[in-house]
Design a protein that fits this description.
Elements: E1 2-9, H1 26-38, E2 45-46, E3 55-64, H2 71-81, E4 86-94, E5 104-114, E6 126-127, H3 134-143, E7 167-176, E8 179-186, H4 193-205, H5 211-220, E9 235-242
Helix pairs in contact: 1-2, 3-4
């Protein structure tokens, strides 16, 4: 029987989602809690792999077990057992062929920045202390929808089989006179992709890169041509959608 877990976490003290040999991870904490409560070794598969310091307002993971469990009670007990920086919203039975990673049709990330010094924004937003043209950055962001190969924004020396992605939305949103966030939705993301895209868009916003330069970076597919990767503390995974039921998870009746 397959169960989906919907959870959120503050990634500040974690070495990313994936289990690490010498560091604490969200996946490791979740597996430890499930294994203790269900009294057997439980392995979970996540919808993606957030990097060290990156947060998730919504992450989905699945696990398999050969008996039925009470999802509501399991979610309650997990929340009592897990550390305060991980919260489980629900545990639900799903069709056995539904996969947390491969069945997802889209994922959405937000990257937050602020343009003046702020003691309250600093933990979850990136400070940019210079003049930046967000209108020009939005022009560049729209160009991302014209491409499918994002090798220019993929971390070097990774074992990905393809750098093809389908970006369906990419835009900067202003939330106050000094705060903004970049929203991007795609069917899949490469390692470090969002932070590399934001870093390159910032180069456009600062006037260091033209729109034609930005196009050449994407078309060149070389990571060395793109901008620097932005800090992970300002990046949030915010949504994951699945096929059917208006994008909601196809629950087992």
């Amino acid at each position: 029987m397959r169960y989906f877990i919907t959870l959120s976490y503050d990634g500040t003290r974690f070495h990313g989602w994936q289990v690490q040999p010498n560091g604490i991870s969200v996946q490791g904490e979740l597996q430890r809690g499930l294994s203790l409560l269900l009294r057997e070794d439980i392995q979970v598969t996540g919808a993606g792999r957030t990097d060290a310091g990156v947060h998730a307002r919504m992450m989905v993971a699945h696990f398999d077990i050969d008996r039925e469990v009470d999802g509501r009670q399991l979610a309650y007990k997990l929340n009592r057992l897990l550390p305060q920086d991980i919260a489980v919203q629900q545990v639900e039975r799903v069709d056995d062929d539904l996969h947390a990673r491969f069945s997802a049709t889209s994922r959405t990330y937000h990257y937050y920045i602020h343009t003046t010094k702020s003691p309250f924004e600093r933990h979850y937003s990136c400070p940019l202390g210079y003049v930046i043209d967000f209108a020009k950055m939005n022009e560049a962001a729209r160009l991302l929808l014209d491409y499918e190969d994002f090798g220019a924004f993929c971390k070097s020396h990774t074992d990905v089989k393809t750098t093809l992605c389908r970006v369906t939305a990419a835009r900067w949103h202003q939330t106050s006179p000094t705060t903004w966030y970049f929203e991007i939705t795609a069917n899949r993301f490469l390692r470090n992709m969002v932070r590399a895209i934001v870093g390159t868009l910032v180069e456009v916003g600062r006037g260091r890169m033209t729109l034609d330069d930005f196009r050449r970076v994407v078309e060149g597919k070389r990571r060395t041509d793109a901008g620097e990767s932005m800090p992970g503390n300002a990046l949030f995974l915010v949504d994951i959608k699945y096929e059917g039921h208006n994008g909601r998870i196809n629950r087992k009746p």
